[in-house]
Specification:
four-stranded mixed sheet, mainly beta, globular, binds copper (II) ion
């Protein structure tokens, strides 16, 4: 029985994408696995500075991720300085697509920190397991408690307040586990008002309200198999987007799945996990909250996805392999309804997404071959068929007359890398090649207003596949006291998709200055560099520092937009008895390589200083933590290179939170 539980737990580790060293058939190694796994489960969604973070704040702590921010809510995660069309963002491998043409709702906005356990970020083609990608993959791992020999209840409750925007939040979750049955449930509320910038000026339309709840039930059908059903419900109301001309009245997501997992005690096959899923997203944005507009517009959107993901894990002494089948069908619809003042007197109607179906089926494989104790070779690839159908093709014919209603694309991908560990040093080098299909907006969008460069964007169904050639390398050193890790990657992206001014067509929106069509540049290049260091000065005093730099250029050596300038972060962490003290400084230097063509201007440098202190105590042997802190202590007025329309970021923010473990 113990072995079975370990296997189940072991599965957890495989799913976490960590490279498990070859398992040896001794009880000692079984015990070891358990220790490793316990550590993995205890990993929390919190940052050095703040224990009650939002999903966005947590993602921001990764050096691979930057953000386009349109307000205080639902930041758009950029992986390797590339927009969300170029990455696959999934929840436990499930494909979900936002229903907003203005990117108000990335997938990361539909979860909460108390229903995920980990975020698995893979760079470039190494992320192709979940489907065709250029930038990589972000997989949000749901919390799922393993089966347990003894009946056990656990849970936590967290509450807190943030002074700047009067944010009040409550997050609760509870788990029950036994040897046959497991249940995980969570509920959360967040309510925030407008925030104030560094000049103590209120930023209008920056409020939000979010409710999220989730449930997961698992039942062990035999000693080596189990079934699991899961659901997440998320609703956001009255969300302001200060950088956009519209706000969100309501967005709702229902994310459901049912899965079956089979473990194998002997042979090469270790685990086979199959899941069917369904998710539906509704998004209602309008501009009636902006009374200055004489003509109003409603822009509702819907996105519905059915899918299947099936993964087999193979393993022997020196070989580890994951084979995954991804299949899904998505329907995306978005409408534009214009009316002077009264909704019933509609003057214009159009489909900004003319009921576009995307059907995808693909097979992916990742392999790890341990060449020796010190070195391993990773290689993998995927082959995907991507089919699109536009129901109201007449909207696409306005700019692309006679374009076919359907389009099928083949998306191949290959990657390989080599890893070497010599004593305290580690090195890796790798390369990748992959295609991606245009997104619904890039292929079929109709008059999607981009308030950043103030153009209306038109999709092009005939766009070629974007093709990425990448190379990456890393080197690091680690001992008991110090660690240094440097990473670089370089992407050469053929047929790079971007909007270019069209000579035809006139703007529809009175704020808009013209029409841009999505088109393919011959190529673009992107370079990313990061350096991470840590040092333990004393047992209780830790220092961390990181630097990132990126450069993106188009075919004419001109700058690409939304490329992060040199940025830095450094933090100190000190523990004294039951107290923990944290301080950090982060910032970007001046953005020199900006892109005026895409609406960017030069952004000055900024430096932000943060502080926090926490106190741990026990109520009936249960750990309780109280935290008090301040972000942007010096109340600096700033906006970053990727703040939509240069909206200022939050000024000084004092936060407090309290977490009880049940
Ligand atoms: Cu929207």
């Amino acid at each position: 029985m113990k072995y079975i539980i370990t296997l189940l737990l072991f599965w957890g580790i495989c799913a976490n994408g960590q490279n498990t060293k070859a398992e040896k058939d001794s009880t000692k190694s079984v015990e070891l696995e358990e220790v490793v796994i316990t550590a993995a489960i205890k990993k929390k969604i919190e940052t050095e500075m703040k224990m009650a973070v939002s999903v966005d704040e947590f993602l921001a702590s990764s050096e691979d991720i930057s953000f386009i921010k349109r307000g205080a809510y639902a930041w758009e995660p950029l992986l390797n300085n590339m927009s969300t069309e170029r990455s696959t963002i999934t929840i436990d491998g499930m494909h979900i697509f936002g229903a907003c043409t203005d990117k108000m709702d990335p997938v990361t906005s539909y979860i909460e920190t108390n229903n995920i356990s980990e975020i698995d970020i893979k760079s470039g083609q190494e992320g192709s397991l979940h489907g065709a990608t250029v930038a990589g993959s972000i997989d949000l791992k749901r919390k799922s408690t393993p089966f347990n020999l003894y009946k056990k209840w656990s849970g936590s409750y967290q509450t807190g307040f943030e002074l700047n925007n009067k944010q009040f939040f409550n997050l609760g979750n509870v788990s029950y586990s036994s040897d046959k049955f497991v249940a995980d449930a969570s509920i959360s509320f967040r309510e925030a008002g407008n925030y104030s910038d560094g000049n103590n000026k209120e930023v209008n339309h920056s409020q939000y309200n979010k409710f999220n709840t989730s449930i997961g039930l698992a039942y062990k059908t035999s000693t080596l198999s189990s079934v699991r059903v899961e659901a997440i419900f998320d609703q956001a109301n009255d969300v302001g987007f200060p950088a956009l001309p519209m706000d969100l009245w309501l967005s709702r997501a229902l994310i459901t799945s049912a899965s079956y997992k089979q473990l194998f005690e002997e042979g090469l096959f270790k685990v086979w996990d199959t899941k069917v899923y369904f998710n539906a997203i509704e998004h209602y944005m309008d501009d009636t909250t902006r009374p200055e507009n004489l003509v109003h517009m409603d822009m509702p959107g819907w996105s519905t996805t059915y899918g299947l993901v099936s993964k087999a894990t193979l393993k022997n002494e020196r070989f580890f392999s994951e084979i995954q089948l991804n299949a899904y069908n998505n329907l995306s619809i978005a409408e534009m309804r214009m009316y002077p003042q009264d909704r019933s007197e509609r003057t214009m109607f159009a489909y900004s997404w003319p009921s576009v179906t995307t059907t995808v089926a693909g097979i992916s494989m990742n392999n790890t071959w341990e060449l020796s104790e010190r070195s391993q070779l990773n290689f993998g690839g995927s082959l995907t068929i991507n089919y699109n159908h536009s129901k109201y093709v007449e909207f696409n014919w306005i700019f692309h007359p006679g374009t076919p209603q359907e389009k099928t694309r083949i998306l191949p991908s290959l990657n390989t890398s080599y890893q070497l560990d010599i004593n305290n040093f580690n090195f890796s080098i790798g390369t990748g090649y992959g295609h991606r299909a245009p997104s619904v907006s890039e292929g079929y969008g109709y008059y999607i207003y981009n308030s950043f460069d103030r153009y209306d964007y038109i999709g092009n169904p005939n766009l070629k596949n974007e093709i990425s050639y990448e190379g990456h390398a890393s080197a690091g050193f680690k001992n008991e006291k110090a660690s240094v890790q440097a990473k670089v990657n370089y992407f050469y992206i053929k047929n790079y998709i971007i909007g270019r001014v069209l000579s035809m067509g006139s703007p529809m929106n009175y704020q808009s200055v013209g029409v841009k069509g999505y088109t393919s540049l011959d190529h673009s290049t992107l370079f990313n560099f990061s350096l991470n260091t840590s040092y333990t000065l004393f047992d209780d005093l830790h220092w961390k520092g990181s630097l990132t730099y990126a450069r993106g250029k188009d075919e004419n050596e001109k700058n690409l937009p939304f490329i992060r300038p040199l940025s830095y972060q450094t933090s100190l962490n000190y523990n004294y008895e039951r107290f923990g003290f944290q301080t950090s400084v982060n910032g970007d230097i001046e953005q020199i390589n900006y892109s005026p063509e895409y609406g960017e201007d030069q952004t000055p440098s900024y430096t932000i200083w943060n502080l926090s202190v926490d106190y741990t105590f026990y109520i009936k042997n249960k750990k309780t933590v109280l935290q008090l802190g301040a972000e942007n202590v010096l109340n600096e007025y700033y906006s970053t290179y990727a703040d939509w329309g240069n909206i200022p970021r939050m000024g000084r923010n004092i936060f407090t939170s309290l977490k009880f473990n049940l």
